[in-house]
Structures are given as C-alpha cells and as structure tokens.
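As noted in the main text, all predictions were made from sequence alone. Below is one such record, for FAM86 N-terminal domain-containing protein.
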Amino acid sequence: MADEELDTTAPPWLHLVAAFLAMGPPDSLISLARDCGGGSITDSVQSFIWEHCIRKAEGKCHAPYVKNLLKKLIVEIESIGGEVLDELYEQYAHYMTSLKENDTTKGNAKSLKWVSYLFPDGCHEATVCPKSRKLVIPLQCSLNMLEGDTGCSLWPSSLFLSEFILSCPEMFSSKSCFEVGSGVGLVGICLAHVKASKASFPPSLSLSPPKLSVLVILTDGDLSSLANLKQNLELNHLSTKSAFSERTIEDPHLVQCMHLPWESAVESELQDIMPDIVLGADVIYNPLCLPHLIRVLCLLLNREKTYLHEQNGGCQGPQLHGEVHGGDDKQLNGCEGKARLSTTPNPTYSPHVSKGVPVAYIASVIRNIETFGYFLNLAEQANLKVTDITENFKRFDLLPYMQSYHRSDVRLVSISYTVL
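Prediction:
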C-alpha cells in the first residue's frame, strides 16, 4: 500500500500515531500496528511507523521509550519471519550505542507526552470540538509513577474526568471550578478548553474593579508537582498566576495555581473562593489524608461556613471519627456497618450547581474497598452526601487508542453538603 493511499486522519492509523505520541505501552502499539496491517506488521505499516511516528517525533519523544518500542517491534516482525525496514534497524542501533541502560529512569526523569482527544463523527458542530475533531494536549509527566513522583504522573481517573468534562461542556462552561490535587494539570486544561470561568469575586475581597475573569483554580500540596503543573499550563498557552493581586482583568486564559496541603488548610484561605464546582481525580487513596480532604471539601461546599465562622469564632471543620483496616476487596458492595454509597437512577442527572448549590465531582479507582468505606463514613459525619453517578452521563470515548486505560475501573461520585 503506497503511503499516499493511507488516510492518516482516520483509524486505525490515527490511533497508532496518537498512542505513540502519548507514550502508550509498546505492546499496545504493536497491537494497533497489527490492526493497521490486517493482522501483521507489513512493510507499509513499518514505513508508516518510521515516517509518521519515529521520524516526525525525532528529538521530541523520550529516546529510551522509542528504543524499547523498536526492540519489541523488531522482535515481533522477526518472530514471524518478516523483514525489518532498514531505517528501523539503523535507528535501534543508534540508540543501542548512544543510550545507557539507566537513562530511562535516571533521577526524577520526565518526558513530554501528547494526549490526543479524538472526537467522534457528528460532534464537529459542538463548540468544544475542534474542526479537526482532534484536541491535542502536551503534558510533561514523570517516568517514575511509583517512586514518589506520583503528582507528576498521568492517572486513569484524570483521563476519565477529562473525558467527562469534554463530553459535558455545558456543565462546566461559565462556572467557577476548583480542583484538589491537580497533579499534571490535565483536568484544569480541559476546563480551560470548555471555558470554565467565574465572572466576579465576592465583595469581601474589596477588589477594584470588582469584576475579573478567573478561569479555574488548581491546587496541589506538593511544591514540585505544582511547579510541573505550571509548566504544563504554559505549554498549553494558559496564563498562570499565584496570587489574587496578580490577576489580569478579563484574561480569557487565566488559571490560578495554589499551594494547598490539605492538613494545613485554613478557612481564611478558602472561604472567599466559593466555587460552583470542585473536582478531584484519584484523591481517595491514603486513609491518613482522608479527614483532611473531607475538611477541605466541607470548607468549599458549605455555603453556611461564613455564618458558622462568625457565630463560633472560627470554623475548625467537622469532628471526624472512625478507623480503617487493610483489605484488597475491590467490590463496591460489602461495606457492612459503614455508610453506603447512594446512586441516582436518573440518566439525565441534573447537577446541583444548576440550582445554585455547589457540587464536587470526584473520580477514583477504588483499589481498597475499606479505604473507600472509611471515606464514606467520614463524609456522612461531615454532612456530605456522596452519590455514585458513573452511569448517569453519556461520555464520548475520546481516547480509543489507549488500550491500557480501563474506564470500567473508574467510579465518578458527586458530593454535596447537606443542610441540616
């Protein structure tokens, strides 16, 4: 098949390029390459990989990743008696002589990934969908996901939440949004794309002039993660500010970044923000952090907090009790003696924010059912209603090329404050 006959803007060729730019697992790319060749990696598929993936991305993609991909690609082709393209052999030989074995994970190594959201046919008229039906977001991510650099890694729940935002832009457009544990910033960048915003601040801030355009507020408790987050925002041409006084009036690309360790958060930092929507991805994982997370959510979602502050001389947050034990059960059922996760059967679920009541959307992979049960207990004590809404929204499959991303592992819950 001649190169000019290939439609690189359509699957499976489009999926192969997108997976390569996102640094997908080599085995996934080999699977996609087989799809392109009708079951095997043909000469035309090899030429495509060389021309449209490796050569075009030379100097941009992480070299050790490309080396590992080439190694597996060569083994795959040779295992069925095929001939490997000379250019692929030569590039692999170049990496063999120029790269050391420990270059892949040396120090706090980071690499640029491009996450491509591929919109399906029929949505090209939507304001959120580019004319090309492809939205590409560059992100600098850590290569040491499990070595203490988790805040700079790309996690499934972030991908899930980003698809949710891009599939339901009307829920976030013209709403003030606040993210806890922003990590690499993918969720915030998607919020910027759908034009999340807050038109003005409460009078208590005494700003002059009073009306500013605030796109979204992103937070993280780790300073190194926050620095990486700011770099990613700049990569995506978004203005980053770290203080209210620095904000630019009517800046359509303004994102506020805030250092927010949950355990030391105080009401004075959060009481004037009053977001319409709070978001979080994979923040329910460490039992020791959950009481602090619940307290932060209360401060953000409770519109009565200012009154309580005045009456009680300060809001100390809810008094939370409970204990958590180990466990590996990944099922949602079986939380005997714990608060239950409610569900809403209405497939046209109406967000609380439409009624002027703030709401949080938290996406999580439930790795430990007892930890999640502990979170539900703490939420109940704090008068927070947690509802599983995973099945209540029709989400586009915007990442069809990510074979290692399993949407079914992620649950989406809404959280709102219950006024007694």
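The two ends are 69 Å apart (CA to CA). DSSP finds twelve helices and eleven strands in the chain. These features were considered when defining construct boundaries for the mutagenesis experiments described in Section 2.9.
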